[in-house]
Design a protein that fits this description.
Blueprint (H helix, E strand, L loop, with lengths): L1 E2 L9 H13 L17 H20 L14 H18 L5 H21 L20 H22 L8 H11 L3 H4 L10 E7 L4 E7 L4 E5 L7 E6 H7 L6 H6 L1 E5 L1 H6 L9
Parallel strand pairs: 2-5
Antiparallel strand pairs: 1-4, 2-3, 3-4, 5-6
Helix pairs in contact: 1-4, 1-5, 2-3, 2-4, 2-5, 5-6
Length: 279
């Protein structure tokens, strides 16, 4: 085992963008209005959300435009989540006035620019935004970029499923998503008491899978790659169920059904509480 290492995915943004444009360019008119797993969003509204994330990233981070201040104090995670959800809602409502063709034109403009921005950043410099779902108040660029990759991959995957298209589930695409998601496990377990040395092994099965071990240290939980010997709990999830569980794509009962837990069941089941997305 070794401590988890930084995830470098900046070079994946341009090919992921090209895959998205190929997908959207091939949609039939009715496909744009199909419902997605995000019940309140159609395909068109999810595409509009992807454009919004590009616009915010370029305007706030690259161009220095001051981000809109929240309407109420941001005292906790829930307040931050509500603020983000409200920003998302406002954009999607306004984007109802934008045609699918124009959305494609805008994405053709913004996508390569976002990819270029991420390639230009020092991965070990302080990020413009912290990865809140991992419990961080400050993050490095590599983690913020990886978080952004997971969002773009997840929403594209949801569009593919809503329109009956093949998913991007090869290891090249999906492993970085899963590797990023599991970085939220120490935060998920932060209030879970256990003796130092307690180990929980998560095995994600499939071509894009891997093994991670969460170890209780005297001060906090730490995440490692590889499988600890004689863990107190072991959780096995197939790769397709894993990304859905960690993005609220499955109900609690579905998540339990999709996981095999051995050892201390209460410890293993806590893994299913990981949520690695804020929308």
């Amino acid at each position: 085992m070794q401590l988890v290492q930084p995830i470098m995915v900046a070079e994946l943004f341009l090919p992921l963008h090209k895959a998205l444009m190929d997908l959207l360019s091939g949609l039939d008119p009715e496909d744009w209005y199909r419902p997605t797993v995000a019940a309140e969003w159609t395909v068109k509204e999810m595409v509009a959300h992807l454009l919004d994330t590009d616009v915010r990233r370029l305007s706030y981070q690259r161009d220095g435009l001051g981000a809109r201040q929240p309407s109420k104090p941001m005292h906790d995670y829930q307040a931050l989540l509500e603020h983000i959800n409200e920003l998302n809602r406002q954009w999607v409502v306004a984007a109802k006035r934008i045609s699918p063709r124009l959305l494609l034109d805008f994405l053709n403009l913004t996508g390569p620019q976002v990819a270029g921005l991420f390639l230009s950043l020092d991965p070990f410099a302080k990020a413009s935004a912290a990865v809140a779902w991992a419990g961080e108040r400050e993050s490095l660029n590599w983690f913020d970029i990886a978080r952004e990759y997971t969002e773009k991959w997840t929403h594209q995957q949801q569009i593919r499923e809503a329109t009956g298209r093949q998913g991007l589930t090869a290891r090249k695409w999906l492993y970085p998503v899963l590797d990023t998601f599991v970085r939220g496990l120490p935060y998920t377990f932060q209030k879970t008491a256990a003796p130092p040395g307690t180990a929980i092994v998560l095995s994600i099965l499939g071509e894009a899978g891997g093994e991670w071990s969460l170890i209780r240290k005297p001060e906090a939980w730490e995440l490692y790659t590889g499988a600890a010997e004689m863990p107190q709990a072991q959780v096995q999830i197939d790769q397709d169920s894993a990304w859905r569980i960690f993005t609220k794509g499955l109900s609690r009962d579905q998540a339990r059904a999709g996981a095999q837990i051995s050892g201390e069941h209460s410890l293993g089941e806590r893994v299913l509480d990981l949520i690695a997305m804020m929308v």
